[in-house]
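Hey team,

Filing this mostly as a record. A colleague (T.K.) asked me to run one chain through the structure pipeline before their review meeting, and I want the input and output archived in the tracker in case anyone asks later how it was produced. No errors, nothing strange. Just documentation.

Input sequence:
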Amino acid sequence: MDLPVWFEVGSLVVLTLILIADLLIILKRPHIPSTLESTLWVVFYVTLALIFAGLMWLFAGGEYAGQFVAGWLTEYSLSIDNLFVFVLIMSQFSVPRRYQQEVLMVGIIIALVLRGLFILAGAAIIEQFSWVFYIFGAFLIWTAIRQAFPGGDHDDDVKRENFLVRLIRRRIDISEEYDGAKLRTVVDGKKIFTPMIIVFVAIGMTDLLFAIDSIPAIFGITQNAFIVFTANLFALMGLRQLYFLLGDLLDRLKYLHYGIAFILAFIGVKLVFHAMHENELPFINGGEHIEWVPVISTWMSLGVIVGSMVVATVASLIVSSRERRLAPAGPVEAAEAVADEKGTPATVDGQASLPERADEH
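Output structure:
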């Protein structure tokens, strides 16, 4: 059973309208979203993705729905990895928190355009050259290794400032201060760019790097271009609110990159296996298909993806919680700990600690 054309067209129209509405809300009311607001938006987009998967199951069957959910979760996990880099960019360029929503929305739109182009190119290449799965698989395994070890993510690329950002700094006049979310401002009667242009370029270049990583990953789960694009679309929708919802929690997800690395390595191996099944290269098995290679099902992929993210997240939170409990105590806590051992009043710099002084009154 194939996906009905009316379902594909209707879905893209509805999702485009939702994105436009989201953008208009930001433009009309730039603000720092509360935890409740961010939570409701994230829940809304996750629920929307699950409803979409349910409709896909209803109209096209469980295999397509499974491919979408597995692809969506893979791209969602990679998108969370994006957030770490977005935090670095916002911090590096001192973007006022009030205008970070607009920056993130522009970044999401750039990401959608870039990924859309990569998806079209990837689908066309796969249609003509099945051996490209060998390249995709090897690339994902290499990316997984970079992700798993220090210096294997994109943080260094952000800290160094890419060539395009350095070129813009040298070639055009940029004001010292932001002027809201404007790209241009007036200084001494002259129109010049604000630092926001640098931020947008940095976000765009980062999106390009992540698109190069993520598109081969999703093609390892499904070769249906519609599912590939909608999985990316749903992964990016709500990413802006997730940025504000997670906040400082991002620093506690210290093992998340290992989970992502495992997913990428798994999909890389799956792509190589698929390439071996479809093999047409004359110097491999005489150009014949390799039938003995195991087939990794969509549902097995889904289980590995969910399991990897759950293990990485839970391990991160447990270790982070333990580290916070074992963190060095402040002067008051340290004095109280010594007092408990000696049976004497706790003192800090020769004075009784606050609870002890309170008892004196």
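Quick notes for T.K.: Confidence is low (pLDDT under 50) at residues 332-361. The first helix runs from residue 5 to 28.
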